[in-house]
Amino acid sequence: MTTSIWSRYKALSGLEKFSTSMGVAGMFSGAYSAFAGARSERLKTKSLGLQLEHQEDMIRFTMDQNESQAQFLSAVYNKKFANQTLGQGNKKSTAIASFASRGITLGIGSTKDLFVSSEVLNKIENLTMNTNKARAVTNQRLKGVGLGIKADMTGLSASNMFATARTIDPFMSMTTGFMSGASNLMSNLPQSLLTK
């Protein structure tokens, strides 16, 4: 039968032979083009997934830096608080020594009121500093929480890109392109090549 098809092919006119050859070449070209296109799309999708993965890593790095900044802020405020309370203690000690050296009785009358009001003001300053510390550290940590959410979403997008890339099959696209080309070729073959 192969000889018969070959002899029928040889009997075709030059234009029919050229048309048939071009049809066969088009079939293979279409199959390769489908393969290359699907492979390119798969690589682009994987590349996008890798870019998103890198973004996630950088966001997580920034998130870790944010936590370090929160801890640094806490340490700075702790040092300020220590200096402030030491200063308050020094002022109180100096005042007590000054009053005692002048023979003023401590703990009664106006001196008592003076020391009580000084203690109240010190307590207010200390509470204000603690509030400022808590606000600054919490705000810094909240930025980290936002970054963590962004990192999770970026990681999810990267996973979706990798899953999409796995579904792109260049060989399946090539087979589909080949079958489509073969069908097109068969429908356009010269009638004399198909009949006995």
**Alpha carbon gap, first and last residue:** 10 Å
Low-confidence stretches: none
Number of domains: 1
Largest sheet: none
Write structural notes for this entry.
The chain contains 5 helices and no strands. The chain has 196 residues and is mainly α. The protein has one domain (22-189). Helix 2 runs antiparallel to helix 3 (109-167) and helix 2 packs antiparallel against helix 4 (170-188).
Topology summary:
Elements: H1 2-10, H2 14-101, H3 109-167, H4 170-188, H5 191-194
Can you tag this structure with a few keywords?
5 helices; about 0% strand; about 90% helix; rod-shaped; mainly alpha; about 200 residues
Compose a concise summary of this entry:
This protein has 196 residues and is mainly alpha-helical.
